[in-house]
Amino acid sequence: MATNRTNMTQDVALLLLDLQNEMVDPTGKIGKGGLAPIVAERKVLQNARRALDAARARSNPVIHVRLGFRADYADAVSVAPRISRLKEHNAAILGTWGTEFPEILAPAENELIFTKQCVNPFFNTGLLNWLLQRGVKHVVLGGVVTNLVVEATARAADDAGLAVTVLEDVCAAPSAEWHAFSIEKMLPLFATISTSPQFAA
Q1: What keywords are annotated for this sequence in UniProt (predicted)?
Q2: CA 63, chain centre distance (Å)
Q3: How are strands ordered across the β-sheet holding 138-144?
Q4: pTM (2 decimals)?
Q5: Nearest-CA neighbor of 24 among 89, 95, 81, 97?
């Protein structure tokens, strides 16, 4: 996998995507289905913390994105099968432990949390406007799942004229094949592929 070092300046924002308890904890309703062990094996949370510490040290904007719904899912507009599975497990309900963040990635008081009800975090959230109004020109991404929220965010950010870097070691998918295909074949069309140590450097 080719990686490139990118100059990280004050117009860079770090976006941590769906790294919430429901997804990354072994007892999370989604995580316990197989994603959490892969997150642990790849040390995604520790790598995300490395990137988070670096962004905070440079005063880069940090955005925490999560998936969250009303208890009755009235705000879930998607009719895709994945939403049916969420409903079956009563997963990602706002106000519950599942939509909060693991302690290692707990948002600081000055860091914003954007809540989405779909894959693309820019859809109906105000996140893109927030970034553009503050002069952000480059977004650095990490999260789960690689071929869903990370890829969707990279595509949408690229469409909006933002430079994109994906931190490969801050990403994971339930299938190693899905992760590899996204990182090696799809995401390089929209982003520079890097790592948390390179970002921290």
Answers
A1: Hydrolase
A2: 9
A3: 112-116, 62-67, 12-17, 138-144, 163-172, 192-194
A4: 0.93
A5: 97
Residue of 148, 156, 144, 142 whose CA lies nearest to 190: 156
CB 25 within 8 Å of CB 101: no
Q: How far apart are CA 61 and CA 52, in angstroms?
A: 10
Which amino acid is residue 46, in one-letter code? Q
The tens place of each residue's pLDDT in the chain, 201 residues long, gives 344 444 445 699 999 999 999 999 999 999 999 999 999 999 999 999 999 999 999 999 999 999 999 999 999 999 999 899 899 999 999 999 999 999 999 999 999 999 999 999 999 999 999 999 999 999 999 999 999 999 999 999 999 999 999 999 999 999 999 999 999 999 999 999 999 999 999
What is the set of domains in the chain, with CATH numbers?
A: 12-200 (3.40.50.850)
Q: Which tokens go with 105?
A: 């990635």
Show the tokens assigned to 158.
């690229």
